[in-house]
Write a structure and sequence with these properties.
Layout: E1 12-18, E2 22-29, E3 34-41, H1 48-69, E4 77-81, E5 84-86, E6 91-94, E7 101-103, H2 105-112, E8 118-122, H3 123-134, E9 142-147, E10 155-158, E11 161-163, H4 194-197, H5 199-210, H6 217-225, H7 229-253, E12 257-261, H8 269-282, E13 290-293, H9 300-321
Parallel strand pairs: 1-4, 4-8, 9-12, 12-13
Antiparallel strand pairs: 1-2, 2-3, 5-6, 6-7, 9-10, 10-11
């Protein structure tokens, strides 16, 4: 877990990635080194107030660890959370999974940590920031990060940063309508991409096809690899929907690199080979981007939170030395 006492103080930041079931944390050095890592349950069954208190307690423990083992407390903190996030205001506006509304997390965390600078970010955009700078999109001036999990989201990378949009909704590719008149989506629309191409959607379709309530997307991918015709049909339906949504996105954004992550990407070339072909068949005047798997796995959000903290700290340092 990164234990050990150092001989001289090491400047570092706290990075926290809060998920629906678990929290991942790290103390991150200026060179990006992970000096200490930890995990714990989010505890959403205890209610939103308890979740917030758990986040604050976890961060305080990380601060204490840094002070004891790294010679000084953290200089800043970055926090990535799910749902709707007002990043400039530092407010976790809404999360269906965690049950909170309009929580001023940035100020609460700064107060708990003794007034250090705190950056609050959306989990997918924060993960995209990490993939763009130090992961699969490294070196790309324009990229689109699309994790395929329970739902589908997106992060639009532009010159080393991730675009949040005017209201914090930029990149919500999962709610592009790809099948008008199709399956209703909890967002209120009908035929959204994530109802057809998310890991959850593939799991649901494969369960229906097999009659096995325990069947999931990973099982479907294995069956595709073995040549099961039912699996190939379910998988291709998802690929087609995904390609339709991605071509819409690349028509609007013209990314140089398209990074696919999340649980569905764990299928490897079972996903990427037909997906690249499906996108190639759909483009006309557009330039086809490199379509690559995400490189950082489930550490992306935590690493991105560390980047947010260091960005904020560098910005603060520049402000302090400006005459």
């Amino acid at each position: 877990m990164g234990r050990g006492v150092t001989l001289s103080p090491v400047r570092h930041v706290i990075a926290l990635d809060v998920g629906g079931t678990g929290m991942k944390a790290a103390l991150v050095g200026a060179d990006g080194a992970l000096l200490h890592r930890d995990r714990r349950a989010t505890g959403r069954e205890r209610g939103p107030d308890a979740v917030v208190e758990g986040i604050l307690d976890f961060a305080a423990e990380l601060r204490a660890y840094g002070a004891e083992h790294l010679g000084e407390p953290a200089a800043a903190a970055g926090l990535a959370v799910p749902g709707i996030v007002d990043e400039p205001g530092g407010i976790a506006a809404y999360s269906a999974n965690l049950g909170w509304r309009d929580v001023p997390l940035r100020d609460l965390l700064a107060a708990r940590l003794g007034g250090v600078p705190v950056a609050l970010g959306h989990d997918v955009r924060t993960g995209g920031l990490a993939e763009g700078r130090i992961g699969a999109g490294q070196g790309a001036d324009r990229f689109l990060f699309v994790p395929l999990g329970t739902g589908i989201a997106g992060a639009i990378g532009i010159a080393g940063r991730v675009e949040a949009g005017a209201h914090g909704f930029a990149g919500e590719i999962g709610h592009i309508v790809v099948r008008p008149g199709g399956t209703p989506c909890p967002c209120g629309q009908i035929g959204c991409l994530e109802r057809y191409a998310s890991a959850a959607a593939v799991s649901e379709a494969w369960t229906t096809a097999t009659g096995d309530p325990d069947a999931d997307a990973a099982d479907c991918a294995k069956a595709v690899a073995s040549g099961d015709p039912n699996a190939v049909r379910v998988w291709q339906d998802a690929i087609d929907a995904l390609a339709d949504g991605l071509v819409t996105a690349l028509t609007l954004l013209d990314p140089r690199t398209l990074i696919i992550g999340g649980g569905l990407a764990e299928a490897g070339e079972t996903l990427f080979t037909p997906l690249r072909e499906a996108v190639r068949q759909r483009v006309t005047f557009q330039k086809t981007p490199a379509i690559v798997p995400a490189a950082l796995g489930d550490t992306a959000g935590c690493l991105g939170a560390g980047l947010l903290a260091w960005d904020l700290l560098k910005s603060t340092d520049r402000t302090e030395v400006t005459p």
